[in-house]
Amino acid sequence: MASPLFPDLSELAQQGSYEVFSFESPRKAISQLKKTPPDIVLGEFVYGYGNNYAGVNVSNLDVFLYSLQKYAPEAKIIVLVEKEERQYVDKLAELFTLADILQLPVSSDKLIKSLAQ
């Protein structure tokens, strides 16, 4: 589930710029990924403190991003992260090519600029 800091994407969807999909679990996101490969992925990073993430995976995004490599290898990945966890995103960037890393809360202007790059 996205944090309250996650940006509201309804304005972008209403402008017709993007079709927005939102998922409560990686399993549901991967299922949709297989049906409709995305051009852009906007994911909220949560570091795995002392649990399975810290051993096998860095964060909540790893499993989805590995699937993304298979089903949509050209997809642009933008990661949103809270200030306290920003230091850990570099570990994820060692595994995957990230187009941008934005600190939450992120302004609409900054998000639109990142999407346009």
Summarize the structure.
By secondary structure, this protein is of the alpha/beta class. Helix content is 37%, strand content 15%.
Defining key terms:
alpha/beta; 117 residues; three-stranded parallel sheet; Rossmann fold; 3 strands; globular
Description:
This protein has 117 residues and is an alpha/beta fold. It has a single domain, classed as Response regulator (Rossmann fold), CATH 3.40.50. 37% of the residues lie in helices and 15% in strands. The chain is built from 6 helices and 3 strands, in the order H-H-E-H-H-E-H-E-H. It has a 3-stranded parallel beta sheet with strand order 1-2-3, with helices on one face. Strand 2 (76-82), helix 5 (89-93) and strand 3 form a beta-alpha-beta unit. Helix 2 (26-35) packs parallel to helix 4 (62-71). The radius of gyration is 14 Å and the shape is globular. The two termini are 27 Å apart. The mean pLDDT is 87.
Q: Order of strands across the widest beta sheet? A: 1-2-3
Major sheet size, sense and barrel closure: 3 strands, parallel
What's the CATH H-level homologous superfamily?
Response regulator
Radius of gyration: 14 Å
Segments where pLDDT lies below 50 for 5+ residues?
none
- Report the order of strands and helices: HHEHHEHEH
Helix content: 25-40%
Class based on secondary structure composition and strand pairing: alpha/beta
